[in-house]
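Please, structure for the following, as tokens.
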Amino acid sequence: MTHQPTTQAARWARRKPLLHLLARLDRGTLLESERRLLRAAVDAELADAEAAHAALAEVLGIVSAWCVEANDIGGLDAGDLAFRLEQAGHPLPDEETAAPADGSDR
């Protein structure tokens, strides 16, 4: 399964109106047309979460199999892991454009 990750900015752009609709729901002022929008937004969030969980499970399976092979057979390096991830549709981010991890010195 290939999963194109949704950017954080796109997720927040989608969630901002969702928060507005939820506030209107809380106040009891949600219109029928807004109810449909709210349902569509929730469905999109759920689909995004399901896709992310499926992609994570696939990546963890690839990493787990690579670790077992690296320990049991040897001769594998990080390039082999990167290749397997790319073949499965999960390429590693480009070092130049990847956001630094929290706590990193980059």
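Residues 8-87 form one domain. The chain is about 65% helix and 0% strand.
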